[in-house]
Design brief:
Strand content of chain A: 15-25%
Helix content of chain A: 40-55%
Order of helices and strands of chain B: HHHHEHHEEHEEHEEH
Helix content of chain B: 55-70%
Largest sheet of chain A: 5 strands, parallel
Oligomer: heterodimer
Largest interface: A-B, 27 and 23 residues
Shape of chain A: globular
Distance between the termini of chain A: 16 Å
Strand content of chain B: 5-15%
Structural class of chain B: alpha+beta
Distance between the termini of chain B: 58 Å
Radius of gyration of chain B: 36 Å
Chain lengths: 126, 330
């Protein structure tokens, strides 16, 4: 199954989302903030990044922009998940290069569906 | 000022030109007897030249006057322009503030809801009692957080509508403070903080509304914990100061930049107002605190050094004999 990187500053959300993804058989690594996430990605890569937007120091948008402008990481699909659901926010996610935008609160099914569809799409391309 | 400089320049130019003409004229009049007059000298002496000169001087004055007038108008236009730009920027910042309020409030309300919903979803499928307990713990914590945020919003709505019902009574502060400090024990332990209290066991009574004073203490101590660094410390002290009792809450947290100090009591103001700020909160706590302290006749002050910590002090008036009579009478 896929190796996923989950980035969120909220510990409870990290734990819960990780549990959901692991139940579906994925391997999940977690990062608390953008800096840590980029470090993990550069070192070990991932099949998919799940990114929160409202995080300390570096926003999810910024992290996504960095991923998408790095030739070595560009191919990794990015799923934004956030409580920010205004059109501007969703647009900003796509502008920063995100592949999908999932609103919080989400159900386990919505999360897994978004993850599977991105993974399938990435595989089709690769 | 730029405009004043311009005015001066025009006046000097007008003065130089007109005085030049007069001097020129006088010179020719004086010199004419000493030698044969040239055509130019003849012309200068003629009535035409005199008329032209006489006309020229008031003309210069007139043009100077209009130049000045135009200048003044230009200055006024510039001012109006500046004002307009400023107003536009203010409007834009109000708009930005409105957007950040919406995202703050929705973030603070939706994050605990997300946690609770996801925990419920997982708990429903969980058989292991240990994990189940963990999920339930998360649900409880997020509901507490949600409740606190809703309380803050409601309290704000009450104050906004002028419906802050203060019931003044003689308050003995030390036990009230101790009790509030105790409420934060779990958070203090979780963040590995030390809490130092300097509270004399006996203090004169103050005039205050019990629930509101607690609200102020909760906000200040909560902030001191929230904005602290792990392993830091929080200090709470009380002392008598003239006709008031002063309560101070200090922390060893991230501090507040000096240029932002006088704005922190504004509604919805957040020191870090970016959409990705580090510390949650709706941005109403200190605004409410200030309103409450002022409604008591007290004052709130803040000192802070970025990277070192902040210290908030507020005063409450001492209880006097006639306060009781006033309360009984009212």
């Amino acid at each position: 199954m896929a190796r996923l990187l989950l980035v969120d500053d909220e510990p409870n959300i990290r734990t819960l989302t990780r549990t959901m993804l692991e139940k579906a058989g994925h391997t999940v690594e977690v990062a608390e903030h953008g800096e840590e996430a980029l470090g993990i990605l550069r070192e070990r890569g991932a099949d998919l990044v799940i990114l929160d937007i409202a995080m300390p120091e570096m926003s999810g948008w910024e992290v996504c922009r960095i991923i998408k402008s790095d030739p070595a990481l560009r191919h990794i699909p990015v799923l934004m998940f956030t409580v920010m659901t205004r059109d501007e926010d969703v647009n900003r996610s796509f502008e920063s290069g995100a592949d999908a935008h999932l609103k919080k609160p989400f159900t386990m099914r919505e999360l897994l569906e978004a993850v599977e569809s991105l993974l399938a799409h990435a595989q089709g391309e690769g | 000022m730029k405009a004043e400089r311009h005015c001066g320049r025009y006046v000097i130019i007008a003065f130089l030109i007109s005085s030049g003409i007069i001097f020129n004229l006088l010179y020719w009049r004086f010199e004419r007897l000493s030698h044969e007059m040239t055509f130019y000298e003849h012309f200068m002496m003629s009535p035409v030249a005199g008329t032209v000169t006489i006309l020229l001087i008031p003309l210069m004055c007139l043009s100077g006057y209009y130049m000045l007038k135009e200048l003044r108008l230009r200055v006024r236009l510039e001012e109006a322009n500046r004002e307009l730009t400023q107003m536009y920027q203010e409007l834009k910042s109000v708009e930005e503030m409105r957007n950040s309020i919406i995202s703050n409030v929705s973030h603070e309300l939706k994050t605990p809801v997300t946690i609770a919903l996801n925990a419920v979803e997982l708990a429903l499928e969980e058989d292991d009692p240990e994990s189940l307990r963990e999920f339930l713990g998360m649900i409880r914590e997020s509901l507490h957080r949600l409740n606190m945020n809703i309380d803050t919003l409601l309290e704000y709505a009450k104050i906004q509508s002028g419906d802050m019902k203060l019931r003044f009574e003689p308050l003995n502060l030390p036990p009230i403070i101790q009790k509030v400090v105790k409420e934060f024990r779990p958070m203090v332990i979780k963040k590995k903080l030390e809490i130092h209290t300097d509270i004399p066991p006996v203090m004169p009574l103050v005039r205050g509304s019990r629930e509101h004073v607690k609200l102020v203490l909760r906000n200040l101590i909560g902030n001191a914990i929230k904005f602290n660094v792990e392993g830091g410390s929080v200090g709470v002290s009380v002392r008598e100061r003239g006709d008031f009792v002063e309560v101070c809450v200090s922390d060893t947290g991230i501090g507040i930049p000096p240029e932002k100090l006088d704005r922190i009591f504004e509604r919805f103001y957040q020191v870090d107002s970016s959409s990705t700020r580090r510390h949650g909160g709706i941005g109403l706590g200190l605004a409410i605190v200030k309103d409450v302290v002022q409604a008591h006749g007290g004052e709130i002050t803040v000192e802070s050094e970025p990277g070192k910590g902040s210290k908030f002090c507020f005063t409450l008036p001492l209880w006097r004999e006639d306060d009781g009579e006033a309360a009984a009478g009212g």
